[in-house]
Amino acid sequence: MKPISLTNKEQATADKELQADLADQGEIPDHIAIIMDGNGRWAQNRGNLRAYGHKAGVNSVRDITEACAQIGVKYLTLYAFSTENWGRPKIEVNALMHLMARSLRKEAQNLKENNIKLQTIGQVDRFPKKCQRELREAILCTKENDGLHLCLALSYSGRWDITEAVKKISQRVKEGDIEPDEIDDETISAHLSTARIPDPELIIRTSGEYRLSNFLLWQLAYSELYITETYWPDFRRNELYKAIQSFQERDRRFGEISENNTKESMNLSVQELTS
Ligand code: FPP
């Protein structure tokens, strides 16, 4: 049987219905972070160069960003280039830089029109000048927007982020601005590159790898993990909706116990437990 082909308009209507269902079913996370993985394998499985997978991955970036903006996600953080990625062959790194510069130039106006605010975390000053320029321009172009915050993690690693925070806090201690005893969770969060961004409620990793790969190590302490086998270039909004649905079914306890499972409802006294 031939698949039913939908026109763009029908597709948009079907998508709106899915989005409405998702919002009715439960909470939409304020902050979603994504480890976009599997571009290289996606391309190699098709007998193509790895860079071809990164190029295809940009279409997923566009679709996921647009869907997040439409369903009311406030922050979307994408792991676009890790500190460790500098160790890849020069030809792949160059292809990625070129792709990023080109995509930013092409998409800046789109971001602006969709009320999306672009920002970055990471050592962007390690990027080629051209890339830095495109980034600056796209950030400037979207600076008045107050819809979705699209945060690109570029030359980023969680350990780098924590190390930088420790340096800043140590300096403040040295200057007598803060006492060592006063340092707590909030102090550390406030000195990370994500200081003005809430911690992600949901972290998605594509391509079936079960690791964090040095991404947002501090910020992910209580995030719900969603791992899919799908390679990033095939990860589109329907997959995102599945991830959010899975998030909505989780019982988030933050190390405590759920409300309907209190000591009273378990009907056990401390004495019974210890005797
Ligand atoms: C991981 O797949 C992906 C990356 C290292 C790069 C992701 C970057 C993009 C999709 C371009 C983003 C562009 C903008 C403007 C944000 P991999 O190469 O590690 O795949 P593999 O695990 O199959 O080798």
TrEMBL record:
- The residues responsible for catalysis, as annotated, are 37, 85 (proton acceptor)
Keyword list (alphabetical) reads:
Magnesium, Metal-binding, Transferase
On cofactor binding, the record's note says: Binds 2 magnesium ions per subunit.
The record lists substrate as bound by 38-42, 50, 54, 82-84, 86, 88, 205, 211-213
Q: Which GO terms describe its molecular function?
A: ditrans,polycis-polyprenyl diphosphate synthase [(2E,6E)-farnesyl diphosphate specific] activity; magnesium ion binding
Query: What are the binding positions for Mg(2+) in this chain?
Result: 37, 224
List its EC numbers: 2.5.1.-
Which top-level enzyme class is recorded in the Swiss-Prot or TrEMBL entry? transferase
The record's annotation in Gene3D superfamilies points to: Decaprenyl diphosphate synthase-like
The keyword Ribonucleoprotein is annotated on this UniProt entry: no
* CC cofactor: Mg(2+)
Top-level taxonomic group = Bacteria
The record's Gene Ontology biological-process terms are: polyprenol biosynthetic process
Assembly and interactions? Homodimer.
Role this protein plays: Catalyzes the condensation of isopentenyl diphosphate (IPP) with allylic pyrophosphates generating different type of terpenoids.
Q: Which family does it belong to?
A: Belongs to the UPP synthase family.
NCBIfam families (UniProt xref): PRK14830.1 (NF011405), uppS (TIGR00055)
Protein's name according to its UniProt entry? Isoprenyl transferase
Give the source species. Fodinibius salinus
